[in-house]
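Researcher: Predict the fold of Lipopolysaccharide heptosyltransferase 1.
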Amino acid sequence: MRILLVKMSSMGDIYHTFPAISDIKKQFPDAIIDWVVEDSFKEIVQWHPQINQAIPIQLRRWVKQRDQHSWREFKTWRKALQTQAYDYVIDAQGLLKSALIAKCAIATSGVDGYDKHSAREPITHWFYKRTHSVDKNQHAVERTRQLVGKVLGYQPEPALNFGINQNFTHIQKNPRKLVFIIGTSWVTKLWATSEWQALTQMALDAGFSVEIIWGSSDEQAIADAIIAACPQATRPAQRLSITTIAEKLVEAAGVVGLDTGFSHLAGALETPTIALYGATSPTKVGLIGEHTHNLQLDEPLDCMPCHKRQCKWLPENSRDTPACMTGIKAGQVWLLLQNKLSQC
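Model: Structure tokens for Lipopolysaccharide heptosyltransferase 1 follow.
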């Protein structure tokens, strides 16, 4: 049985899909699974040992450029995709763009996807041969597992298996090292630098080393501000590859991060992780598993979660920390992290 899975982005969504891949191989050990994914995330998909082939696509760039060269590249990509027929093609993303890409494949039994009440974009159900009802109130991990199970005719077992830890067995755990993930793509998800400084000092005073992961010039500046207040903390000299960051997350005894892909990666790697939430909700897309904890205000504000890149209570283009995040204090995070570490 040959299966094509379409889920092109984002980083966190890809990690959320790994348990469904593990489910398939448990039910059908001989299944051959290919996965269409944005080129920048191909490296991640290839971590799962049950993936036969990661098929990279540059849809984001093609859509942004919208020129003849991009159109020619897309047609070449589609022609290559159609050299292989699939018994099942599953659109696990539920967006118009993913439905259109799924329709490019040769599916001997048609394309499967969410029904109009289950998909993130209801219009997608017109593109599928078969649609499946999956509760939208479930966590994204369970939604994907349920969809794939319904397509292939099995009920997923309760236990989760992300299936990627075996790629990092060469990394030795450091019980006295913590990793802090300070960056995220939305300003509204950021935590105050002063709180990061306070948390870092607590960790250092307790005898831990702290490494701060950054990925942009703005994040590098935040890391430098933390280190200026806590000189024993460190950061990488250069921006790291995804695989190198994964190795650091495996090495760490614990991780504190924001609502960002690398926090989800830490959770998928089963490292004790505290993730901080304000503008977004962890209910459907938060970290999942006994080794994780999604932290937000004990008494949420009326505007939470807004799912906005700009806080309406702050001036336009402000980089100040919104109230939904300022209410989370370093001492609270430290106590939760200590609790998680004590359970390991």
